[in-house]
Amino acid sequence: xxxxxxxxxxxxxxxxxxxxxxxxxxxxxxxxxxxxxxxxxxxxxxxxxxxxxxxxxxxxxxxxxxxxxxxxxxxxxxxxxxxxxxxxxxxxxxxxxxxxxxxxxxxxxxxxxxxxxxxxxxxxxxxxxxxxxxxxxxxxxxxxxx
Length: 146
Known about the structure:
The chain is an alpha+beta fold. It contains 3 helices and 9 strands, in the order αβαββββαββββ. It is globular and about 70 Å long.
């Protein structure tokens, strides 16, 4: 019985200490290969200002990159981009799915895409007039987010 209590205490201590987020500054060569390729292919003219690796528990890790022009990019633990925020300046259109680009060009012709976020089920896009739009994973418009 004491052995079970001891093991339970060890497990609780391990879980409680692993629940805290840990942030550390890393170099670009420490990013996952997917993230390095994404930055090289889409932001080659912008230098990296900082890279933060954030670990919340044994299973959750993400990378937050800030470029010298102010653009912020979030990557998941495998280096897939989750969010690109141009901080009110246009983001590269080649990272935006074609259906979304076409919808915005047709419906909001005098705007630029300044932020995009992707999840398993949808894309959230902010355009330069301040509207936030939602699309499904096929790039079909869902709604204007309030």
